[in-house]
Design brief:
Layout (H helix, E strand, L loop, with lengths): L8 H5 L6 H41 L8 E5 L2 E5 L1 H43 L14
Antiparallel strand pairs: 1-2
Helix pairs in contact: 2-3
């Protein structure tokens, strides 16, 4: 996962010896990492669908308007006309662009939360970079 570093082995190995607050933060970190992986997978899927839909829309430019066309509806192929196919693809592209944008923002928020939690955990354990100043831990 790009940008997400797991808590180091020293932290993972100490899990049983951690104070309850630190253990809770570590569990939150692990949950956030899982969330980040799910969001990344959803984003990848949406980007793939978007690329496929954009390609199909571009291919429509090379097709005569009166060409018989079919679209898949579940297990069936149903005849459709050019304008309907174009409208459907344009709507799908627009919807997928919004979805990808939303997932990118969600990915950024999760990344920020992850970094904040990671810093809090490092400060709690008395190690790692101090971050933004002299605020003492617990």
């Amino acid at each position: 996962m790009r940008g997400f570093n797991s808590p180091g082995p020293e932290v993972m190995g100490m899990q049983g010896n951690l104070p309850p607050e630190a253990q809770e933060k570590l569990e939150e970190l692990q949950d956030l990492q899982e969330t980040a992986q799910q969001v990344a997978a959803q984003k990848q899927e949406a980007e793939t669908q978007l690329t496929e839909s954009q390609t199909a829309l571009e291919e429509l430019d090379d097709i005569e308007g009166d060409t018989k066309m079919y679209r898949q509806l579940g297990e069936l192929l149903v005849e459709t006309d050019y304008d309907e196919a174009e409208d459907d693809l344009e709507e799908k592209v627009s919807s997928l662009e919004v979805r990808v944008d939303t997932l990118e923002k969600q990915e950024e928020r999760v990344q920020e939360q992850f970094e904040e939690l990671q810093e809090e955990l490092q400060q709690m354990l008395g190690g790692g970079p101090g971050g933004m100043g002299g605020a003492g831990g617990a």
